[in-house]
Design goal:
Layout (H helix, E strand, L loop, with lengths): L5 H31 L13 H6 L8 E9 L14 H10 L4 E5 L2 E7 L1 H6 L4 E9 L2 E9 L2
Parallel strand pairs: 3-5
Antiparallel strand pairs: 1-2, 1-4, 2-3, 4-5
């Protein structure tokens, strides 16, 4: 019985090519997901002393008002119909479970940070949020109930 000595080399080559193909696919999917989320990794800020901070304070973004529905980043504008909770309770439960508060204004979704105790009071309702914006995140300074 004669065996082919090249058989093992062929199996090894095919396995390596398959593994390379799978790795390439995973890298492509990861890159596409990162581009779709719009996130680019920001380098960590360099350590600065308090005297450097005081002398180089950047002007803060201007305060603006935003009107919309206060909800969570998980459910967005549509809370599950199968849930026995209303929009306010669903929003609070999702935020408690790790989601972020969000403000939906038409097709735009803003994440809310800052004074979240006031935001919690208007969860699931229309509200006017005052704060400064950085990208798609609003640093909340005040909240007033629906308009």
């Amino acid at each position: 019985m004669k065996t082919r000595p090249k058989l093992w080399i062929e199996i090894l080559a095919l396995s390596t090519a398959g593994a390379f193909g799978v790795a390439l696919l995973l890298v492509s999917l990861g890159t596409a997901a990162g581009a779709a989320s719009g996130g680019s990794e920001q380098p960590a800020p360099a350590a600065t002393s308090s005297s450097q901070l005081a002398s180089s304070q950047l002007p803060s973004a201007p305060q603006q008002t935003y009107d919309g529905m206060v909800t969570c980043s998980r459910c967005g504008a549509k809370h599950p119909a199968t849930s026995s909770r209303n929009a306010s309770d669903c929003t609070r439960a999702c935020v408690h479970a790790g989601a972020s508060f969000a403000l939906i204004d038409g097709d735009v979704v803003y994440l809310l940070k800052g004074n979240l105790d006031q935001v919690k009071k208007v969860a699931g309702q229309r509200a006017t949020i005052t704060g400064s914006i950085n990208g798609q995140t609003i640093e909340v300074s005040s909240v007033s109930a629906g308009t």
